[in-house]
Amino acid sequence: MTAVLRMPPDEATVAAYLSHKLPTEQADAFEIYCLEHPQFARKVELDLTFKRGLREIGLRNLQPGPSTRFWPRPALAASVAAVAACGLLLVVGPRWRDSLVVYRSATEVPSALRTDTHFGVTLVHLRGAQPPHRIVAPGRNGVLELRLYPDASPGRQGYSARIAYDSMVRSRSVILTQLRADSAGYIEMYLPLSEVADRTLKITLSPDPDPSGSPPPAFLLQIVTSGG
Amino acid sequence: MNTDEISSKTDDLTEALCQRIRAGDLHAEATLVARLQSGLRLVAHRASRGDFELTHDVCQEALVIILQRLRTTGLENPAALAAFAAQTARNLVMGMRRKAQRQRTGTDAEAIESAADPRPAAYEQLAAGTIRPILNRLLAELPGDRDRTVLVRFYLQEDNKSDICRDLNLSDLGFNQVIFRARNRLRQLLVEAGFQKHDFLDWEGCP
């Protein structure tokens, strides 16, 4: 016999239902409530549409709004800045993994990740060929805060970043647009260690159109865990 | 009116609808379909573990079964229509799964899987193609990065509301307003894109 809900389920219950975290009996009761209350059911469907749609877009492609709290409004040129093509590395990872997720600000990092290890690395781009920066992570949990100094011309602020990474099948990449350097000139991004450990990444920063036409700064990173 | 009174009124409405359907009232059938559609899709979506194609088929099939039953023998307890509808949808999902399993040949399933086209099914591509521009537009219209962060963390990363509010220094009310605004705007954009209000999950039906 399915339990009966007398009150509309709250946001937390809706979220738990959509994440398949409600126990079966509660989920059954939730569905009966939806069948008896079509307007509520449509609201739940909208939330499901939202969830699915965001997944379709992919976190990495989500654009900030026109005015931002963490990243100020970029110049129009920045929004159309082409990401320079860059060579990819094909150091094959140990197994197939889903696409890489990169966060643009600390507030975007899920709380579950934030409670684990958090360690930061600052890299400065040096002119000329560079060997990979080998980063030894303390483990596979937590988040790597990366601060990159692009060795850019003074006054240059808007960037796109292409993060190429290896896979068993083909080279893949993530593109972050409308990145802004902080007051010290650094660009920051956050990478879950579970996804970047034992991977090699190449991060290419493409500034807003550069009148000098100089090649975009690139960083080659090899991330290994202290255990392996 | 308290919750018991509301519940009793809903039961009365359902009973009246069932009686009208039994008497051959086509408007009553349309009303019932509109009432049950969203809920049935949610039931089928969970039972099929997120299979949108199966959800669509099960919803249609369940409505046919429910209407046939109401036109003929009716329900012993019309107030239990929601439970009957839910169980019908769940049974249909199980039945369709079993049927699909019976139709399997002895071919090595793993070999088929590895040879299968890794691209999403056509209906998924269609759905994605429809929803992406709508959501991109909605996200671009957000008044600030904070709203975007709230939506991404709540809907995509499934973070707790309390964690999000704490991290972003948002009140409970502020959080609800962000979600409410976004939900309403999404509804508006979906309707503008040709979806009917009862079709939000039924992306295949979109022009």
Description:
Chain A is α/β, with parallel strands linked by helices and 228 residues long. Chain A folds into two domains: 11-57, no CATH class; 64-225, no CATH class. Chain A is 23% helix and 26% strand. Chain A has six helices and eight strands, in the order αααααββββββαββ. In chain A, a hairpin with a 6-residue loop joins β4 (158-165) and β5 (172-180). In chain A, α2 (24-36) crosses α3. Chain A is elongated. Chain B is an all-alpha fold and 207 residues long. Chain B has two domains: 3-102, RNA polymerase sigma factor, region 2, helix turn helix motif (Rna Polymerase Sigma Factor, Chain: A), CATH 1.10.1740.10; 120-205, Winged helix-like DNA-binding domain superfamily/Winged helix DNA-binding domain (Arc Repressor Mutant, subunit A). Chain B contains nine helices and no strands. Chain B has helices at 3-22, 26-47, 52-71, 81-102, 109-115, 122-141, 145-156, 161-168, 172-192. Chain B starts with a helix and ends in a 15-residue tail after the last helix. Mean pLDDT of chain B is 77; it is low at 106-126 and 203-207. Chains A and B meet through α1, α2 and α3 of A and α1, α2, α4, α6 and α7 of B.
Question: What's the layout of helices and strands?
Answer:
The complex is a heterodimer of chains A (228) and B (207).
Chain A: H1 11-18, H2 24-36, H3 38-57, H4 76-79, H5 111-114, E1 118-124, E2 133-137, E3 143-149, E4 158-165, E5 172-180, E6 187-192, H6 193-196, E7 199-207, E8 218-225
Helix pairs in contact in A: 2-3
Chain B: H1 3-22, H2 26-47, H3 52-71, H4 81-102, H5 109-115, H6 122-141, H7 145-156, H8 161-168, H9 172-192
